[in-house]
Design goal:
about 280 residues; alpha/beta; Arc Repressor Mutant, subunit A; Rossmann fold; 5-stranded parallel beta sheet; 5 strands; about 60% helix; about 10% strand; globular
């Protein structure tokens, strides 16, 4: 999803003053790439700090960071035409459309990723691992499979972790979490009732909550930390393909970021795990 499209979807989440900045950006995004913050503020009729708050509401560090991502989004030619498969497509067309959609979604995320949310999530997860506390991953349907992948990656780091795709287990788990723990909720639509109930319970217990979901969704507004996973795929009509890959990439970014923060003792631990796992393989004769 293009950054301009993401801004449009998030308009209702912004304050009245921030919406003025959003409209100024959407009116002429290419001009904004070269504009200093003072010019944007004057054009929108707001103060310079309001422009910065607008950027941070979208997950960026400030105006400079926002402009870089906006320029990359415009240069990459997004928004792109999402090609849906149709009856009668040849094998070649299926491969081209599905792979092309996936590549473009990942490029769009790369160009417009809100680094502030990712940085905050990495810091919270690393802090939880260092303290020996618990990280739980929740998702339903296909997102539940992504939650299991996340649990596997953090388990290898020596983290106390679990993944739940069942609504009842999510309620139990969220009830038992403490303020020193962390909950990561993964959802394509951001509107699954079980996940909304679970994250609300976790918030009541002071748990640090992270949501990997679409901008403007109820789940995004409930989480303390939001990582926008926006894409052109309709969660109402299609089996999630692009969204699943995007969620897996975000999990890889978080796991790698946490691993880098944990220091030099982690590679030795991972090497020992790898070495022990080799004994489970059949050896060639």
């Amino acid at each position: 999803m293009a950054l301009t499209e993401r801004i449009t979807r998030m308009l209702d989440e912004l304050s009245a003053a921030e919406q003025k900045v959003a409209h100024a950006v959407l009116a002429d995004p290419r001009a904004m790439v070269a504009a200093p913050v003072s010019d944007v503020a004057a054009q929108a009729g707001v103060s310079n700090p309001t422009v910065v708050r607008f950027c941070r509401s979208l997950g960026f560090e400030g105006w400079s960071d926002f402009k870089l991502k906006l320029a990359a989004s415009l240069a990459n030619g997004v928004p792109f035409v999402h090609q849906s498969v149709s009856h009668g497509d040849s094998c070649r067309e299926l491969v081209d459309k599905i792979v092309g959609n996936s590549i473009e979604a990942l490029r769009s995320f790369q160009a417009g990723a809100g680094l502030r949310g990712i940085d905050q999530a990495i810091a919270a997860l690393a802090r939880t691992v260092r303290a020996g506390r618990r990280i739980e991953f929740y998702g339903v349907g296909n997102s539940g499979i992504v939650a299991q992948d996340a649990q596997h990656k953090f388990f290898r780091m020596g983290c106390h972790t679990a993944a739940y795709a069942d609504g009842h287990l999510q309620v139990i788990g969220a009830t038992l979490l403490t303020p020193d723990d962390c909950l990561v909720v993964i959802s394509n639509s951001g509107r699954s009732r079980d996940l909304l109930d679970a994250i609300e319970l976790a918030r009541q217990h002071g748990v640090t909550t992270v949501a990997i979901t679409s901008s403007g969704s109820p789940l995004a507004s409930l989480a303390q930390i939001h990582i926008a996973a926006d894409h052109p795929e309709s969660y109402e009509e299609y089996s999630p393909m692009v969204s699943r890959l995007l969620h897996l990439v975000i999990i890889d970014v978080l796991a790698t970021g946490v691993a880098l923060q944990l220091g030099p003792e982690l590679p030795a631990r991972l090497h020992a795990i790898k070495s022990n796992l080799r004994s489970k393989r059949y050896r060639p004769l």
